[in-house]
Amino acid sequence: MMNRRRAALTSTAALALAAGLPLSVLAQQKKIVLGFSQIGAESEWRTANTESIKQAAKDAGIELKFSDAQQKQENQIKAIRSFIAQKVDVIAFSPVVESGWGTVLREAKAAKIPVILTDRAVNEKDDSLWVTFMGSDFLEEGRKAGRWLVDNVKGGEVNIVELQGTVGSAPAIDRKKGFEEVIKGKPQYKIVRSQTGDFTRAKGKEVMQAFLKADPKKINVLYAHNDDMAIGAIQAIEEAGLKPGQDIKIVSIDAVKGAFEAMMAGKLNVSVECSPLLGPQLMKAVQDVVAGKTVPKRIVTEETVFPMESAAKEFPKRKY
Ligand code: GZL
């Protein structure tokens, strides 16, 4: 990609100079074109992530070709192939699941189009297939959720139900792993039921209803892999005549606005931050890649933990 883009600029530059145009005018004309394949619009987090990417592209003067895959991997693969056919300068995407990307990533490499992974990782062994992966450390997010639990919910048996994210996705796999790392060797903390709620409010509510029907007495804690599923579960807990945040403590991840509202209402106990605001970092990486600069293979987003007690103070400062 770099040779083709540079060659195009050089030959046009010669023409422009012959026409007496200053190079600076020419440099402005060739806009960087970024093809971005987004997973969908399943959660508040995803909506904020899309807004961040679109706004940052506008601010950076980058032409954004944006595709919404509606949670389907085949739609993401189709979009990436279309970006290759359109000869975009850079391709970026948030992989809905970890596996099944080798073929299309090799096609992008053969077309000399650099690829940036945002938000979620892929489990391909050949890491020459992407320039950089930027996003949160989901393992650490799971550990933070586990640490909050063992520090704040003690005494006697602690029966936990878990709402997992999308099956096969990096956040679902690693948030489970990190959480289990912390409660391992502490037999009083037991995950008694675990099922996917696919990161959505609707599914989170439906699965929590099933959990409550199966074990109405035995649930002490809900661990939700994202706030949207936690918010759906809160509705189910209330409809069952129980008090979310009291009868059942709730630990969640993302720290979206809805989570702060639930914490201020005393219905959610803690949310581990997972920032969707990756747009500016992505556009900087795109510009650096096009300019031939080296970009770190892994860019980790810095994040914190928001317990219920801090929600009212922090809420006005929240950007998503
Ligand atoms: C995490 C992101 C997850 C969020 C969910 O980086 O991939 O997907 O935690 C979103 O809210 O749906």
UniProtKB/TrEMBL annotation:
One of its GO terms (molecular function) is carbohydrate binding. GO terms for cellular component: cell envelope. Its main location: other. Residues 1-27 form the signal peptide. CDD domains: PBP1_galactofuranose_YtfQ-like. Gene3D superfamilies: 3.40.50.2300. Residues 35-293 form the Periplasmic binding protein domain. PANTHER family: D-ALLOSE-BINDING PERIPLASMIC PROTEIN-RELATED, GALACTOFURANOSE-BINDING PROTEIN YTFQ. This is ABC transporter substrate-binding protein.
